[in-house]
Amino acid sequence: MKSHTAYMTFETGERQELIRITEEVQEAVDAAGVAEGMALVSAMHITAGVWVNDDEPGLHEDVLEWLDKVAPPSWKPAANEVAEELSKVSWPDRKEVTSSTTVVLFYTLFATVFFALMDQFWKYVTDKIYSF
What we know:
The structure is a single chain. By secondary structure, the protein is mainly alpha-helical. 52% of the residues lie in helices and 0% in strands.
């Protein structure tokens, strides 16, 4: 069995756009030397999709209109106070997360060693007290 992988990147100029990739897929199949079989075309991004249908402008317009209904482009204010407060959260960048994690790991290690030593100390003390 033969297999061939071709990664293709497409850039769009609009928020929603249909791109005909039939020729590019055919070129990848031809380059693979596949005479018969199956071609798997997959979008590797959550906001992209592969759609197989007739290349008809009226159908394109209908699909774009349907997409606007399913995922409207308008922004809506937060539904309640909790959502509004969550929208104000500023997440730390990678440097802040790394430094905070380092501090937490250091103090965790310090506390572990401290409590292990205290445990050994109190074990020693209680052994001495009860060994009489």
